[in-house]
């Protein structure tokens, strides 16, 4: 399953170089993952009910093309691979001209809420990766 989130670049996201600050791309990716979880019917409450949380442990991002104020962006998110407790999303950000602006591999781990240690990813999540 692939999710899509449409956003518009706001003036507060622009840096001194008059383009989107690099850290804002990480926020865009996070918003895209949250959209994926919602579409997969796995919001925070669903994980909480299972006694787990998800924790981002690695983001490998490549910046391809600058984004500017007013750009209409599309944030894509899709499952890439899954291990015992870790899983990876492939994410891409495109502008209104369908130019790839950034792509990333984002690794998260499922963590037990009580022990704060990694825990096997639940079948409710695994189904999207298999």
Automatic annotation (TrEMBL):
It comes from the Bacteria. The keyword Transcription does not apply. InterPro entries: 4-hydroxybenzoyl-CoA_TE, HotDog_dom_sf, YbgC/YbaW. Pfam families: 4HBT_2 (PF13279). The keyword Hydrolase applies. Keywords: Hydrolase. One of its GO terms (molecular function) is hydrolase activity. SUPFAM superfamilies: Thioesterase/thiol ester dehydrase-isomerase (SSF54637). Coiled coil: none annotated. Belongs to the 4-hydroxybenzoyl-CoA thioesterase family. This is YbgC/YbaW family acyl-CoA thioester hydrolase. It comes from Paenibacillus eucommiae. The lineage of its organism: Bacteria, Bacillati, Bacillota, Bacilli, Bacillales.
